Structures are given as structure tokens and as C-alpha cells.
Amino acid sequence: MLDVSNLTLGRAGTTILDRITLPSIEGGSLIGVLGPNGCGKSTLLKALAGILPFTGTARLDGDPIDSMQRYKRSSLVGYLPQDLPPPSTFVAYEVVITACKAARPDLSGEQVAEAAQVAFDRLGLGGLAFRPLSRMSGGQRQLVGLAQVLVRNPRLFLLDEPTSALDLKWQSVVFDLLREHVRMRNAVCLVAMHDINLVLRYCDRVAVIGNGAIRAFGPPEEAITPAVLREIYEVEGQVEASTSGARMIYVSGAL
Amino acid sequence: MNKMGDGTATEPPTALAMGKTENERKDIPALQIQYNRFVRKRLYWLIVLTVILAASFLINVATGPASIPISTVLSGLFSPDSLPDALRVILWDVRLPYAVMALAVGACLGHAGAEMQTVLNNPLASPATLGVTYAATLGASLVIVFDFTLPLDIPQHFALPVFAFIGAVLSILLIQFLAKFYGPSLEGIILFGIAIVFALQALVSLIQFAADSDSLQQIVFWTMGSLARATWDKIGIITVVLAICFLFSIRQVWNLTIMRNGEEFARSAGVPVERLRFTTLLRVSVVAAVAVAFTGVIGFVGLVGPHIARLICGEDHRFYLPASALAGALMLSAASLASKTIIPGVLIPDGIVTALVGVPMFLGLLLSHGARWR
Q: What is the ipTM for the molecules in this complex?
């Protein structure tokens, strides 16, 4: 359960989000965070991860996130930055082990090994596990980043554009896996996204950010309307239903 | 506790079960088995490095104006009384301090360079980057020229190392102080460091300009770095400092490892990046300062030692930190051997020889592995 109320945050003296409040987000839900470039999606995720200071309250299962001890927070909150893991000499499996040792020293070696095996299999990384990140593509490195955050098994996922470097197949695999994981473990997952079609397909609810405030919050088909697209993204567009019943947006042009 | 409980409840440890290798136990995932193998390989390379180091140490001890057979060196090491008096004096009072000092100082510089490269996220970082060695030179120059004495009955031959050490630690505190006020960003710290390096160089030049020719010669000799001033008490001080700092490093081993994946990634795993950098730089400066204070400036080891370690053992800091210390010790050990043998009878300052010996060693490794940095 995630409760956010009256959250104000900014950087270098400027306020980016001003006293935002979200309805309680219960466990098992996948929440899309939408908004134009620079609207504060990443800033919001970083604040909830405890990396940026904020005023107001953000509670995870009743505990204020900003005053948690380091290891408590790193065991409960799994933040995946927008930047891909850099092309280092580390092999993929090492990255996952290292992240678990640093963030979740409470997990046993067996727990990590089992979770890592599942994550690598599901994300198609089995054959790449012992390849250095410097010899992987951007998309593969993004999957490694996702694998380590899944293995950490947090209560709150904060994923900043987790599919930005992935092709169509792996976008779907990642979201199928995320939705399944979040529902099974009753976790909360916030994903900052630009791809509205993926959000329409997978997210239980969306928060649309614009001009420092939450402009809309609710199930994707209700929150994403032509009026919101016009106001927030400054594009002319509409949400249409395909023959199979799936929803998608069609953008006809910028305003 | 869990493991014990499971083991006794479901499967009593029979001889058969205990005889199983790790791979045969069903419950270990395939990737973990591969990883265990991967880790064992690194451990194996760490042992190989240790053996090479031990060999170079023995050769170093055996080599000199009077060459001692290695078998005699070994027996002299373990039972000094078995040797004739003259040989015992040569071994224990001349050769060993020199050779052990090479190991201790090399290990300090290698270790300091490794941690520096990690927390500054820069492959060109070394103990010289933030001015540690220059500040030590300034402290030493002040003692040489102005002939300071120490309070508290500290022997006068310690004046030079003490002032060199104080200089080095002050320089790093100054950088930390500046960083604290003007934002502790990586670029900020490196730029402050560069500015301080230039300021310190200018101050040393100023002192050299003012010094008489005798002092000037002493300063120049100090900046060439030499192990010849080795004594057992100096070795003791360096070893204790290195051991204490190494223990603190080991406590941070996972945090340091994750730092190599970038600051943002480390922060996302809950690592307090700024605090880790502060404490690590402080620790590294103490290690580098104590080594340099007794020997004078020995460059190159702190820069290249970590690269050799990285090529051999990767960047998992459980192996990278010890490997860097071993590689540093090996480089300086080889250099001290070369400094005795290049011109027989003349002891060339080790600071000069390190690069001459280290560059071929490093290039050889680089060419055989291919560049693995990035």
C-alpha cells in the first residue's frame, strides 16, 4: 500500500511538483506515470526512492519512506534509473549479485540464486549471464537492470522507462512479467512511461502529470482522453478500440 | 540457521551426501553453479598472483652484491640462527627490510589507487590525482629546508615522514572541505584536486628556488623515491596502517563494487554515495601518505597496479582490492630488483625504475587480454 499526500519536490531551488496527492495505491497494482518531457516523472520516482529530498508524506505500508533506515528502504524499495547500466567489465550475473549484496544483505545466497535463475530465464538472459556488459546491446543491458531489481524483490517498484531500449517482443515480455510479479507478491509498481499504448494494455491505473500537478488519475481508458492528450502532450489524438477490444491511441499531429 | 534446519530435517548428512560435489546437488540453480565456477577462477588467479609475488620477493632478497642462494634465504627466513653471523646481518638487516618495504609500500599504493579509481570513477586516478603525493613532497621539502624538529621526543629521523604525512592528509581534508561547501560532485572533487596539485607544485618549486644546493639535492632525491631508507619500525607502521584500512575497505566491498556500475545505479541500490566517497578518499589518503612519507614519491604503481588487477581478476572488489595490493607489491618488488641489477653496485632510486619495469609488464598484459576498460 502506497500513500502519497501533499508531496512537494524540486531541484536547485525550483519546485517541480507542488503538493501532489494520490489516492491510496493498494498492493498488486501496476501504475503508469505519464507526462511530457521534464514534467517531473523521474523526479517523483527518485523522491519516492529516497534519493531526492521532498516535503509532504509518502508512506509504504504505513512507514514514511524518507525516514527509513538505509537497509530497510533498500530492501523495500526497488528503483531502476532511466540510464541503462553502463557498459562495464562486469558480467550480467555479477551485476545482479552485487546489487543484491549491496541493497538486500538480508537475502540468503540461495534465495538470490533461485530468484536470479527465474529472472534470467524469463528475461531471455540465460545465455548472456556471463558476458561482460561492455559486449551487450543497450536493450540487453536494460534487461540486466530489470533482472537485478526483480531479484531484489521489493515491495515498491519504481521503474523509470524500463522498456525504452527494448524491441516489441521484449516490451511485452517485460510487462507480462512485471504484472505477474506485482500481482503474485502483492507489490506496488510505478512505471514512468512515454509509450501510452503499453500503458493502456498493461497498467491498472495511470497518473498523468502536467504543469507540476496530477492532471488525471484513474484506469487508463478513463484517464487518457483526447482532452488530456491536448492539454498535457499538446497533440491531437484519440483513444480507439481495436477489433479485439484492445485500446490504443492514435495521434494525428502536434498542436 | 535455515540451512542447518533443512539439512538435518530432510536429509541426514550421510557419507554419500557429503561426498557429492556442488554440481551434483539438485537444488543449486544452473547459473549459480556457473557463477561459483567463475568466482573460483578468480580466486585461482589471485593465488597465481600471490605465488608470482612470493617468487619475485625471494629473488629480490637473494640478489645483491653478495648473492645468496634461494635455499639459504629460505632456511634463513625460518631459522635465522642457522646462518653464519655475517650472512644473517646481510639477510635480516639489509636485504629483508628493503624487500619487505617494497611489498608493503607497493601494496599500499596499489590498494590506494584501486579505491581511488573506483570512487572517482576514473581510470586515470591514482594517489597523485588529488595531490596526496605532492602535498607529501611539500611537507618533506619544508623539513629539509627549514630543519623542523618534532615535539614529544620523537626521533629526528621521523621528522621528514611525519611532515610528509601531515601534508598529505591536510591536502585531502582541504579538498573534502571545499567539496562539502561547493557540492560534493565527482567533477567538483577532481577539479579541486587538480587545482590543489598545481598550487602544491608551485609551492614546492618556490621552496626549491629558495633552498641552498645541498637541500635542493635532498629534495630532488626525495621526489625520486627510494626504498633504501627501509627499517623494520617503518615497515611495522606501514603494515599496521594498511591492515587497518584494508579491514575498513572489506566492510564496504559490495558498495564499492556497485559504484563501478555508476553513481546513479549505486544510489538506486541504497548506497550513500557521497558518504562512501568521503570515507574512502580519507582512508586512501592515509594509506598512500604513510607509504610515500617513508619512501618519497613513487608514481605509476598506484595508477597501473589496479589496471593489472582488473585485467587479471575483474572488478568484483572482493578480488579486485587484494589483487591491486598484490599487483602493486609485485611491481615495486620487481622494480627494486631492477634498481639493484641495472647498474651493478649502484642503487638507482626505485621511483625511477618503477615505470621502466612496470610499463613492459603492463603492456604485455594489455596486449594479451585486449583492453577491458570500457
A: 0.88
